[in-house]
Amino acid sequence: MLDALPSRPSTPASLGLHSLAEQGFLFATGIENSAPTIEGGRIRRDQMAECGHYDRWREDLALVKEIGCGVLRYGPQLHTTLRGPGLHDWSFADETFAEVRRLGILPVVDLCHFGVPDWIGDFQNPEFPELFAAYAEAFARRFPWVQLYTPVNEMFITAVFSAKYGWWNEQRTDDRSYVTAIKNVVRANVMAMQAIVRVRPDAIFIQSESTEQFHPECPDSLIHAEHRNAERFLTLDLNYGHRVCSSMYEYLMDNGMTREEYHFFQRSAPALKRHCIMGNDWYATNEHIIGASGQSRWAGEVFGYDTVTRDYFTRYGLPIMHTETNMDEGPRGDESERWLWKQWSGLMRLRRDGVPILGFTWYSLTDQIDWNTALREKNGTVNPRGLYDLNRNIRAVGRAYQRLIEGWKPVLAQQGHCLRLPVTAA
């Protein structure tokens, strides 16, 4: 159904919210909804379709409860819901979010996950921020009981894969296109937060962002590693109104960002920061080795989640949620379980040291398709990294996560010291 608004309760308190405070520590999973385009826009990699969620959404939502998660990273697909300027098809969202609410699951609503509708084109379109902000406001008005949002998922990866590495969407590789993608993506995120807060003044935003580290391979690569280690902060620096370093400011100005565009972030972001939780995503591919030529390759885990996340916390001083991780089960079938416990151990070390970590996420609920090639090739390869396989049978890591939740949830609830809300929850 297009744009027929349901009746809205008169006050947020009447909405039966499961607030952050009621949840305590946030044990989460997610429904993978990446949807970039490849091959010049001819192919859409809609992971909800490829992983069977459109046909099995009721079953999937029931599995979230079965595994013990109280929180779900989830959202309607932007490319199927935003049909034109101000034109929305809410039919799938109406059904699924009604079931999410009935089950008592707390959603963190993911509004843009790596792709835009065909009629918008790609992240080079300067109209994207305003169009997206209007969409975010329309969603908030239609679902006023929702409090938690990730407006644009992984802003850094969105820009890097689309306009630096040339893998997705606009598939460009020049600095000017990259800076254009960064400023459009982050501006869209900031404007969406502003729009949502107009509807839901106590909204909370969890910036699910890839946490990165670049290691110099040799003395000649130091300058390249220093640049990339400054660049990794660009999206969050702009999003939180944190002043970039002088080299990054010159880089932005040299590649098309105007002083007024930069000042927009400095003016707009600080008022929103109190609504924010910094979400950190961590995979075995998040650390890189930089060679003398400036080319990078994956390093595997060198520092690990806790060390790199500490750098981000020191920079922004915000509460943290571990918002994504996974690992293939491997030839022995237990690599994903080992990775789960490794991530949990790093998280607990940070909490021990006083870093306010509010939650943990295994992403995603089910196995994924073709992420071994970052969705660049449509091969139909199943990546065995979900809590459940694509037949919805629980995996070993799913049972391990279930045990982890059962064991730690009451302990963390008793501690009760970590949860510090940026704004008062309804």
Automatic annotation (TrEMBL):
Pfam families in the record: Glyco_hydro_1
GO biological process: carbohydrate metabolic process
GO molecular function: hydrolase activity, hydrolyzing O-glycosyl compounds
Gene3D superfamilies listed in its UniProt record: Glycosidases
InterPro entries for this protein: GH, Glyco_hydro_1
Signal peptide feature range: none
Protein name: Beta-glucosidase/6-phospho-beta-glucosidase/beta-galactosidase
